[in-house]
Structure formats: structure tokens, C-alpha cells
Amino acid sequence: MAYRIKTVAGLTGIPRATIVAWERRYGLLEPRRSPSGYRIYADDDIELLRRVKRLTEEGLAVSEAVEMVGRAVEGPKAGVPTPTLGGLEGLPADLYRALLGFDRAGAEKILPQLPQGFERAISDVYMPLLRELGDAWERGDVTVAQEHFASAFCREMLLQMFHRLGAGPEGGTSVTCAGPPGEQHELGLLAVAVRLALRGMRVTWLGADMPFEDLCAFLARHPPRVLCLTAMHRAQAPAVSAYARQVRACAHPETRVVVGGPGASGLEGASSRDLWFCPTVEAMLERLAADSPFPAGT
């Protein structure tokens, strides 16, 4: 259908002056003109405006939102391979496609179809999707905008789970989750925080890239029973081991320090009573469940 700008403003909730400004400043749209000189918009133009508006409402600058939407409309650049689905199929594949297309509305329509329960949604959908996204990023199959958009959406969903759980019961075993300095990857650790809360532990989430001095100061004031650290880069195992031992030295004697992720691979034999290296989430959860002071959960 064809629409005049007044109608478009009403359908999108974007003021007429703003639509014109986005056209002139960012080249977002190129509406055709009627014989009388009025701007004429199509259904695709309205959807494009709605997508930019959603992204700005989520905190992006208009220029960033326009760039993200523009990349999705243009498709892959010449010489850049089309993203593959890897081993994804079913709902994870559907969600992956929607996120790579910057289609938040489409992604949200998939959410009610996800497996019931946070545990299954994490293990069956979000973690496989994030692994494929990381692999695609390393292969150069996805753009920076696609990776950021998809990661931000998954982070939002995981945080919603964490907050709905109230970070776990107040009387649960105290656990702190943090990322070492320079470690920007936090989604795997956030998924761990949700799973620990599901198992009846009380989780304090400090997030990624936690400075060493600040972490030690926190541990001195609020010593947890367990401290979970993330280590995502396999090649950095020696540095991971050295950092973990520094943290262990500044932590309370009764705090169990657990390092999880690919960076802990090969370090399992260096584990001690109060310092564990667990390359997988499952290994970490199994050890916590088997250790008598901690609840096994469900």
C-alpha cells in the first residue's frame, strides 16, 4: 500500500519532523513522490521505521540503529559468506535467523515456543545459539552489528531469568560470579548464575571485566562460600591458573574458588580442595552437587 507521511507518523508513533530528519541526516528512506510532490511510503518503509524506533528505545543511538537496520536490509557484503546454522535446527535455528536479521519482533514471537523451564531454555536453545554465534564470528560469517544485536538479546533474556529468580533464595549458599580483568565474555557465566540460582544458591552477580583489586576488596567485605570465575580463551590456560591462584590467596580461607570455561581445560589436575578448574558447566555443577556443604538442588 501507499501512505502519506502523516499516516506513517500515526502508524509508527514517530513524529513527521523526525521521519524527515532521519531521511535527510542518515539516508534511512528514499520515499517516492506523488505528482503533487507529497512523500509516498510503502509497507516496507513503515517496518523499517518501526525497527529503528525499537532499537532506539532499547538504548541505541539513532545512527547506530540506522546502521544495524541498514546492514540487515543490504544483506551480506560481497565476499562475505552467508551465515550458516552450524548444528542448529528447530527453535534455536529460528531464533538465530531472526536475530541475525535484527528482527526483534520475530524473535519475541519465538519465545513462547521455547522449552518450559529456564534450565531447558538455557541448555537447549540459548547456549547452542551462542556457541554457533561465537563460531560464526570467528569465521567472519557475521558482522559486528549482528553479533552485538544477537548477544544483547540473549543477555537480556538471561538477565530476565536471573531477576525473576530473585538471584536465588536468601538462605541459599552464597555464590559470587565475576569475570577476570579484560574478560568481556559474560553470557556463559550469566547462564551459570541462573542455573546456580535454580539449584537454591544465593548468587551475587558482579559481571565481566572485574578489576583484581576491586574483586579482592569485595571478597574481604562479603566473603561468599563459592566464587565462580569465567575463562573463555583456551590458549590462556597458564595466565588463567596464575590469576586463579592470586584470587585464591586474597579470598577468605573458606571460600571455594571455581574457574569454569575453555580456559580451564587441561588444568583439572591442578585443582585443590579450595580451588577448582572445571572446563564445562556440567563439571562444575556436578562438583558443587557432590561437595557436602552445598545443596544438590533439582
Report what the structure shows:
With 298 residues, this protein is of the alpha/beta class. It folds into three domains: 3-74, Orthogonal Bundle (Multidrug-efflux Transporter Regulator, Chain: A, Domain 2), CATH 1.10.1660.10; 90-164, Methionine synthase domain (Methyltransferase, Methionine Synthase (B12-binding Domains), Chain A, domain 1, Orthogonal Bundle); 174-290, Rossmann fold (3-Layer(aba) Sandwich), CATH 3.40.50.280. 52% of the residues lie in helices and 11% in strands. Strands 5-4-6-7-8 form a five-stranded parallel beta sheet, sandwiched between helices. The chain has a three-stranded antiparallel beta sheet with strand order 1-3-2. The longest helix is centred in the middle third of the chain and has 22 residues, at 118-139. The chain starts with a strand and ends in an 8-residue tail after the last helix.
Write the topology of this structure.
Elements: E1 3-4, H1 5-12, H2 16-26, E2 32-33, E3 39-41, H3 43-57, H4 62-74, H5 90-100, H6 104-110, H7 118-139, H8 144-164, E4 174-178, H9 187-198, E5 202-207, H10 212-221, E6 226-230, H11 237-250, E7 256-260, E8 275-278, H12 281-290
Parallel strand pairs: 4-5, 4-6, 6-7, 7-8
Antiparallel strand pairs: 1-3, 2-3
Helix pairs in contact: 3-4, 5-6, 5-7, 7-8, 7-9, 8-9
